[in-house]
Amino acid sequence: MNHDQVSSGVLLVIGAATCLGALSYDLGGLSSPGAGFMPFLSGLAMILFSGIGFIHGSIRRKKGERWILLLQGLQWKKAALILLALTAYALLLEPLGFLTCTVFFIAFLLRAIVPQRWPVVIMGGLAAALASYLIFEIWLQAQLPKGPWGV
Fold first, then answer.
1. Cβ count near 8 (within 10 Å)
2. Claim: this prediction has a pTM higher than 0.85
3. Which burial class, exposed, middle or buried, applies to 67 when counting CB atoms under 10 A from its CB (0-12, 13-18, 19+)?
4. What pLDDT is stored for residue 66 in this prediction?
5. What is the number of structural domains in the chain?
6. Which one is predicted more confidently, 40 or 1?
7. What is the extent of the structural domain holding 86?
């Protein structure tokens, strides 16, 4: 067995349990779905996709893929930097505000995690922050934290 087969088997069991649990509620019909309709469909989707994953894993196993360590080859430095950046973002969001904090967060990711040239870092940080500001603050009217400058 390989990782794909094991994870697919676990997800198949979870999907079956979800379907069985949903049967205790009213499923209703397509025109008037009941409380158990969406959980039942979700369980069916999990069963379907885990079945596809199991078949894919079986094909890969026949080609000679064996069990390998899950954490082998993981780049710990980048994962730690991303975790630290997310922590700093969460802590600085209120005092600096959404726009400022997002510009610095995206710029850091573009420079430290996936090294880019400075013009790309600056423009990428500004574009991502402005686009998310327009979507959340203007279009969806979410209340984002304002910085010391009122932005």
1. 22
2. no
3. exposed
4. 66
5. 2
6. 40
7. 76-139
